[in-house]
């Protein structure tokens, strides 16, 4: 019942966002959009190295992941949140499968798709392609940081601590029992959502708020489901959200740096107030 209502609400949100995006008017001219630093050879190398690193880490995860936890306990905050947000035993697998669906399908399609639609309306297909590359770079960097941290910290997962190993699935075998910190589902979905939104904002797309509005709720939902499924503690999810958001802002900023002549201007408005505008 809980999962059905959750999915119904999610589908309504996605349908609303899609209907809004289809009715958007054409945005600013291409020459009004701020350019990015973009070197195809360099971007391709970064993606290649990032992908290879991620695949090797996943391939050798049984050897790299600690067989025994280094951080085995928890804290009062995590315990309190876990008790409040964790679903009952019979529904945890549903929460887990929902989080997988968000990470491996819904969030990438929704964030990149919305970002591409907004970019093509504001500029061109070339801008949409470049934006997608920046988002992918953010995703790969976040994924690799997450994996390295998981291997180094070796925090025991909540369900393992409670002895409910039947919650393992094809994505989380025994080699992942001690990789709770920090949440990869949360960090990567936040990196996708924030990178897409930040890219649209740095570009100056008129409908950048739509990109933020589609991605962030889905990322928050993924984090919540990671706790509901008893896969992660609250601090795992919070750290994942912070890391993914930081990388999601960093990558677009690096591409936008030095390319925009925009500058904030502060002027007086109504008595006793200030108005901040952005001029180019």
Low-confidence stretches: 1-5, 15-28, 260-280
CATH architecture: Up-down Bundle
Question: What's the structural domain tally?
Answer: 1
- For the secondary structure, the number of strands is 2
Largest sheet: 2 strands, antiparallel
Approximately how much beta-strand content do the residues carry?
A: under 5%
Describe this structure in words.
- The chain has 280 residues and is mainly α.
- The chain has a single domain (37-279), classed as Vanadium-containing Chloroperoxidase, domain 1 (Up-down Bundle).
- It starts with a helix and ends with a strand.
- It has helices at 2-22, 40-59, 61-64, 76-85, 92-122, 125-153, 158-161, 184-203, 208-228, 234-256, and strands spanning 263-268, 274-279.
- A two-stranded antiparallel ribbon has the order 1-2.
- Strand 1 (263-268) and strand 2 (274-279) form a beta hairpin.
- The protein has ten helices and two strands; from the N terminus they run H-H-H-H-H-H-H-H-H-H-E-E.
């Amino acid at each position: 019942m809980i999962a059905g209502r959750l999915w119904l609400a999610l589908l309504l949100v996605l349908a609303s966002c899609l209907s809004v995006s289809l009715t958007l008017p054409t945005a600013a001219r291409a020459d009004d959009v701020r350019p990015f630093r973009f070197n195809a050879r360099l971007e391709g190398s970064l993606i290649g190295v990032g992908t290879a690193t991620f695949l090797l880490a996943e391939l050798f995860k049984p050897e790299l992941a600690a067989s025994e936890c280094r951080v085995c306990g928890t804290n009062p905050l995590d315990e309190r949140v876990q008790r409040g947000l964790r679903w009952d035993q019979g529904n945890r697998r549903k929460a887990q499968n929902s989080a997988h669906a968000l990470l491996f399908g819904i969030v990438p399609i929704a964030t990149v798709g919305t970002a591409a639609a907004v970019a093509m309306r504001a500029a061109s297909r070339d801008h949409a392609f470049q934006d997608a590359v920046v988002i992918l770079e953010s995703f790969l960097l976040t994924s690799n940081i997450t994996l390295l941290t998981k291997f180094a910290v070796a925090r025991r997962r909540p369900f393992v601590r409670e002895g409910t190993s039947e919650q393992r699935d094809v994505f989380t075998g025994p080699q992942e029992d001690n990789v709770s910190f920090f949440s990869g589902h949360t960090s990567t979905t936040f990196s996708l959502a924030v990178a897409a939104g930040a890219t649209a904002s740095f570009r100056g797309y008129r409908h950048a708020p739509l990109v933020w509005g589609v991605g962030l709720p889905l990322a928050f939902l993924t984090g919540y489901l990671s706790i509901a499924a008893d896969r992660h503690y609250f601090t795992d999810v919070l750290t994942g959200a912070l890391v993914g958001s930081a990388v999601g802002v960093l990558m677009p900023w690096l591409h936008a740096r030095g390319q925009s002549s925009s500058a904030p201007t502060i002027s007086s408005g109504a008595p006793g107030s200030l108005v901040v505008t952005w001029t180019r």
